[in-house]
Amino acid sequence: MKKIRIALAALAFGLAAQSAQASVVTPPDQTFSNNANPAASFALPSAAQNDILIEFTVSYTGVLGNNDFAVFYFGDSNGPNIGLKANCDSSCTNDLFVRMSGSNWLPQNYVNPSDIAPLPASYTLFGRLHKTGTSNNYNRFDLWLNPTEQEKASLTGWDAFATGNSGFSSFSNIGVRTANLNGVTVNFTDISITDVPEPGSVSLLGLAAMGLMAVRRRGARKAA
After folding, report:
1. Domain identity same for 169 and 193
2. Same domain? 7 vs 96
3. Is residue 206 scored above 90 in pLDDT?
4. Which domain holds residue 169?
5. What gap in Å lies between CA 210 and CA 206, rounded to an integer?
6. Are residues 106 and 161 in the same domain?
7. Are residues 118 and 38 in the same domain?
8. Chain center to CA of 192
9. pLDDT of residue 106
10. What's the number of domains the chain is made of?
11. Which positions fall inside the Ice-binding protein C-terminal domain (predicted)?
12. Are 55 and 150 within one domain?
């Protein structure tokens, strides 16, 4: 029975992966101590039209000041952002956030609490930019801080989110924008950007991954 479960889980994962045909971009680690727009830029193999997943680790040296800023943006620098925007422009102590566009923010855009410490501390961010309802444009960005494997598989339990019309339905450029980094160096490492070109493929991959996790857990309990 155990072999059957493993085979079924592996088959489900294989079918999900084949269906998704997700392309993954893994840019090199990035370090920023100057202010630039863009500070870095990456091109997707083809224009993204459905879910985009991004995962990276953020750390820094120095002393964060109000609105020290280093983010990934999608489409253009006024598009959806994810990353570091220290102290909510001085109105709080949170530092990690996500937003759909522009320069404004709402409390739900920030991870609470996320008063991040300098190196050797580091933080993993996982984001999902997608379209909800009948929208043709990207209109939601979910953010997880230090996500569990189950959260990444199920795409539930986010720590912050942003909603609103991004103004575009597809894009092929992802960049980094920095500002106010006076005496602060920000590091983005272990960067992974996944383009899932078929609606529903993300949840399909997630279900397959959760199935494999369940098989492993059952095997571990029996071994114990």
Report:
1. yes
2. no
3. no
4. 22-197
5. 6
6. yes
7. yes
8. 9
9. 93
10. 2
11. 195-218
12. yes
In whole angstroms, give the CA distance from residue 79 to residue 92: 24
Q: Residue 72 pairs with which residues in a beta bridge?
A: 82, 176
What is the pLDDT at residue 89? Answer: 86
Do residue 221 and residue 128 come from a single domain? no
> How far is the C-alpha of 6 from the C-alpha of 128, rounded, in Å?
29
102 and 83 in a common domain: yes
Three-class DSSP category at 192:
strand
205 and 22 Cβ atoms separated by less than 8 Å: yes
State the pLDDT confidence band at 205, using cuts at 50, 70 and 90. low
pLDDT at 102: 83
Q: Is 27 exposed, middle or buried (0-12, 13-18, 19+ CB in 10 A)?
A: middle
CA angle 13, 145, 205 (to 5 degrees): 10
- Model pLDDT, residue 184: 97
Q: How does residue 103 score in pLDDT terms, banded at 50, 70 and 90?
A: confident
